[in-house]
Amino acid sequence: VQTPAISPMNVPELIGRVRQGDVRALARAVSLVEDDAPQARQILSACFPYTGSAIRIGITGAPGAGKSTLVDALARRYRAQQLTVGVVAVDPTSPFSGGAMLGDRIRMRDHHDDPGFYMRSMATRGSLGGLARTSADVAVVIEASAKQRLLLETVGVGQDEIDIVRLADVTIVVLVPGMGDDIQTLKAGIMEIADIFVINKNDRDGADRLENEIRSMQALATEHGTWIPPVVRTIATTGAGIEELEQEVDKFWSWLALEGRLTARREAHWRARVLDMVRQELLSTMRDRGLDDRQLAEIGRQVVLKQQDPYRLVPRLVEQLLQGERHGKD
Ligand SMILES: Nc1nc2c(ncn2[C@@H]2O[C@H](COP(=O)(O)OP(=O)(O)OP(=O)(O)O)[C@@H](O)[C@H]2O)c(=O)[nH]1
Ligand SMILES: [Mg+2]
After folding, report:
1. According to the model, what pLDDT value does residue 98 have?
2. 245 in ligand 1 pocket by Cβ < 6 Å?
3. From 110, 122, 209, 292, which residue has the greatest number of CB atoms within 10 Å?
4. Residue 100: what pLDDT?
């Protein structure tokens, strides 16, 4: 049965269908946002009022740690309780991503006829806005389709990934036994944002040692106040430990609900997002006015030749932009 074509410009109708759980409409809306289509902003604005009640769970960790398998296992548990689930998986350009993409496709087939489940995989692309912004926007659209749990998967390497995880209310950091060196690499950015640690692949040797490492590291951490991130051991492929993980998520959620912690966390998130959106808006307006790559290259050349002083040039460019804006818009 074919759903009638949706006019790309008819955003209210599209969002109406998204809200009713029309999977095709949701896929369409997500694509328009992902592709930064002209109606993307209108779509996001229409979806925004319907966000805020889902629990956003970020899952991050080393490549191949079993994040996608965990996401799938958690999603199944939630679905078994009739909770609707959305997934945003950000696949890095890592050697693992090919396999992960294939895995995602198999999992999507499993959930195929389930209107209470929707998953979108996104690949790292050199888009101007950056992956963090795009995945944040995609999450808004998916959440607006009446999803109660939103799972965000990303590899825990690099600033972009940390920014993605900042969207989450609950952040799960996935580690695997025998990755002693990796823990050092991950430590810098990712370790301190963990609300819950998962030691996945607990069917392997070395879980005790890894847990000790986490515990000794935690002895220094105070940032989370009274919450000490628990360590949950799982075997994602068999589902072992997933129930406990789900319980820890609920416990953290209860803790977050107290003393305005959730609000504070979400406010911090929006503070960063709004700043990013302002930056983006200014940049794209400048680009619309002709500050393209060619002109930037020319400016670079002139600066090197000392024909331009960047410290004078940039304020002037911004000034011109703001004046143009005032004249242009009225
Ligand atoms: N032995 C064992 N294998 C696991 C476990 N969990 C996941 N795997 C396997 O590990 C491999 C990677 O799993 P994924 O879920 O794709 O890992 P990922 O972290 O999503 O990988 P990327 O997204 O590429 O970073 C797959 O072959 C899984 O079947 C586990 O608990 N034990
Ligand atoms: Mg994955």
Report:
1. 46
2. no
3. 122
4. 47
